[in-house]
Amino acid sequence: MKHIPNLLTGLRLALALFMFFALAAAAGDVPWFSDTLTLPLQQSLQRWAFGAFVVAAVTDFFDGWLARRMNATTIWGAILDPIADKVLVCGAVLGLLCEGANPAVVLPAALILFREFTVSALREVAAGKAVKLPVTVLAKWKTTLQLVALGAEILVVAWVAFHLPPNSTALNYVTVFAHSVLWLAALVTLITGAQYWEQARKALSEG
Fold first, then answer.
1. What is the pLDDT of residue 199?
2. Which pLDDT value is given to residue 207?
3. Among 7, 156, 189, 187, CA closest to 90
4. Quick check: 149 and 32 in contact, CB under 8 A?
5. Which of 29, 32, 68, 195 could be 24's S-S partner, Cβ–Cβ 3.0 to 4.6 Å?
6. What angle do the packed helices 39-69 and 137-157 form, to 10 degrees?
7. How far apart (Å, rounded) are the C-alpha atoms in residues 142 and 118?
């Protein structure tokens, strides 16, 4: 039973990779799919991508909650969890860009990618100096905002694939919501990045 949290984390990683592949294939960016891509197959891939993202996002809550509840926290889980989170977020961003994301999505998505790679590199350097950068409460909210925003953006892309009416008022509301939360997520992402940078700077200068 104590392996369940790590299994959920591993599932999130696998689903993230599948979600990116499905979005890229639906956009015609996978060579062996591009020649045989039909509209029903494209829409099916988009639906599967959305479903995979939702399930993966849900596991982000439950793996940590179960690990604490079952007293099953492990070093391997602590390493794999942030990796799975970043692969999910980056995979969704890159998948949306493959789908020809709305210009309103490109800048905040790029800022999120830049921050994630920068903080990952910063953590690696800090770890080499025996400096720990604990996850902040705001950083946890950052992840939640990212997942909500990216999920909404994927839903916008897959809207017609779910046989929902295009150019509807509901689609307009979902699109505005998705773009607004994505920009908010990008802002919080940059703020937390600056916080980690300052933490690392102080710790390394004191060392």
1. 81
2. 55
3. 189
4. no
5. 29
6. 160
7. 15
The Cα 58–Cα 121 span in angstroms is 27
* Matching residue, tokens 């960016």: 29
For 71, list phi and psi in degrees, rounded to 5. Answer: 55, 45
Chain centroid to Cα 31, Å, comes to: 25
Q: Where are the domains of the chain?
A: 4-206
Q: Other C-beta atoms within 10 Å of 170: how many? A: 10
Q: Comparing C-alpha atoms, which of 166, 159, 171 is closest to residue 43?
A: 159
Model-level pTM?
A: 0.90
Q: pLDDT (tens digit, 9 = 90+) per residue, 81-116?
A: 788 888 999 999 999 998 886 788 899 999 999 988
Length of the chain counted residue by residue: 207
Residue type, 36: T
Measured CA to CA, the distance from residue 124 to residue 74 in angstroms comes to 19
Strand, coil or helix: what is 36?
coil
DSSP state of 5: H
Nearest to 101 by CA among 165, 143, 157, 150: 157
pLDDT tens-place string over residues 35-54: 788 899 999 999 999 999 99
Low-confidence stretches of the chain (pLDDT < 50) are none
Among candidate residues 30, 20, 25, the one with its CA nearest the CA of residue 41: 25
Q: What is the pLDDT of residue 2?
A: 63
**Residues near 178 by beta carbon (within 8 Å), at least 6 away in sequence:** 149, 152, 153, 155, 156
Question: Half-sphere exposure of residue 92, counting CA atoms within 13 Å on the CB side?
Answer: 36
